[in-house]
Amino acid sequence: MTLLKQLILMIVLLFSVLFCGSIYLNIQSSRSFLTEQLSTISQDTATSLGMQLSPLILDPQQRVIVQSMLDAVFDSGYYRKIQIVDVNGIVILERIAPLHVNQVPDWFVRLFPIETPSGEALMNHGWQQAGSIRIAANPGIAYASLWGSSVNAFYWFLAAFILTLCVAISLLHVVLRPLRAVEMQAMAICNREYPAPSPLPWTLDLRRVVQAMNQMTQKLKEMFVEQMASIDRLRQDAYLDRLTGLPNRRYFDLHFQQILAADEALAYRALLFLEVSHLNALNEQQGFQTVDALLIAIADLLKTNLANSAEDSFIARMSGNTFACLIADAESEQVAQIASDLMQQLSTLNEQGLTPYAQIGHIGVVMYHSQTGSEWLSEVDLALRTAQAAGTNTFYLDEGQDKNTLATRNATQWRDLLQTTLTQQNIELDTQRVKALDGQSLHHEVFARIRDADGELIPAALFIPMAKRHGLLPQFDRLVIDRCLTQMAAAPPQTRLAINLFGISIADAEFMAWLGDRLIATPHLAQRLSFELAEHEAIHQLSDVAGFIDKMTPLQVQVGLDNVGRGLSSLAYLSRLKVNYLKVDGAFSQQIDHNRDHQFYMDAMIKIAHGLDFMVIAKSVETAAEQATLAAMRIDGVQGFIVEEIMRWDVA
Description:
Layout: H1 3-53, H2 63-74, E1 79-85, E2 91-96, H3 106-111, E3 118-125, E4 128-137, H4 140-190, H5 204-239, H6 249-261, E5 268-276, H7 279-286, H8 288-309, E6 314-317, E7 322-328, H9 332-351, E8 361-367, H10 373-390, E9 395-398, H11 411-424, E10 427-436, E11 441-451, E12 457-459, H12 460-469, H13 473-488, E13 497-501, H14 503-506, H15 509-521, H16 523-526, E14 529-534, H17 535-540, H18 542-552, E15 558-564, E16 581-584, H19 596-611, E17 615-618, H20 624-632, E18 637-639, E19 647-648
Parallel strand pairs: 8-9, 11-13, 13-14, 14-15, 15-16, 16-17, 17-18
Antiparallel strand pairs: 1-2, 1-4, 3-4, 5-7, 5-8, 6-7, 10-11, 10-18, 10-19, 11-12
Helix pairs in contact: 1-4, 4-5, 5-19, 7-8, 8-9, 13-15
């Protein structure tokens, strides 16, 4: 029971006691007064009537007059009994009326009885005693008067009670409003939010409570900000180039090996190396500040060109004068155009006065053709040396010979294949189990594959970029969700699936309306679903993601973030999203058992996530040593070949 209800109940009980006591005392007082009044009336009437009848009572001829006078008094209704007795106690005349109380409940009469007071007077004829007269008043009128006054008192007290209660409730609402604000503040903290300080109330006791709560909220917010800043500083020191703000060689190698191991290289179609010329000479002639300005300008050109041409591309500074770019979802013609445009813009740096040398640098590019990572790096280094041998400010593109025929389709062929897949729903689902450290299954992540006309499987890393280029991602998300729900209906009831969604889908009103209707139609299946969003998309769609979470929460659908940490962005955004779990990029799990930087980052991530009430899942865990190290850090779940290989999900 809330404090407000307790206070209201206390007021009601107290007022009820006072009300009942006041009514009772008022009735008792009125009853005593009425009893005394009746006694006085009876005695006065007996005395007066006795004096009038004394000369007549002994004369037999006046008996009729005596009876008439007696009847006149009795018929007034104020008396219950009138009796005249002689000196021997023999009743001469008597009038008795039954007790009759109009409009007064019987229970009231029984609860508050009024005695019938009587008066007695002697009657004398001269010096001779003639007898006595006894008169008893009728209490019916007293009962009616007592009942009427009691009813009036009841209604008056009731009106006063209602008015007082309303005023008391209003005052309590005002007085307790700061407590409700404190409650909302506490709930916001539980929901990983840090609201503005609550205004201080005028009540001293509550003022101290609100002040303490405000201070606690501020401290928690500062602790969260400090933790975020600490982990951001760690990542910047370990993985970012301080001058350009780009990832460094360490993070490039980490990211490069991870995408190759996860078969994501299919989505990256080219690797570009840019080497800047004459840096040592420029440093000797004009100092490091000029060199720094040149490198920052080149980094900005790379960011601008790659963002405009291939938004999923990845840029890093490999060394003092070398930059590397992984270009996503681009054909050789597009890659050649990107390199040409970049080289033209680099040539303008001399005109801008950033360097006195006309030769700015050279670019070597190699298309991906299913080679290994070391082969790809060797080929791009050779392409860079070829460009340097070709002349000033040149680039060289090695298109290679793609051994994977799946990647050689043109745009029209891809569009036809994707449209056919959507029409025929020719999609296959693979899953990989994610488990807690105690062995309990958390969920199975779903991986989609499609088949071409020849029946050859095409992985998501290859067809998804093409679907994105043709604006078909929401349709593929629909197809995967619909297929998952259909197969879940025939799967064991403990099966829980995690489905990857694209940012463009949750921003699509038509898709969200379809998804809501689909999940509402099958609530028992919706409760066994988790949707995962890539971190790099969520950061740029915070409002869309927050709205998506708000819609999924009532349906008991979990929402998680995938590949957390890959983009090296600040983690401050986590306080705005009430997700259920985080999947940390697999690059931080690999060899974590002897990599101190990875251990520090993962430990900080786990502490922050647990402070925000998130679960943390490590991806790409492949060895028992990695799993043991993560377990010591209190990781919530692991995913990788140590748990289960990716398997075909087929419900018979």
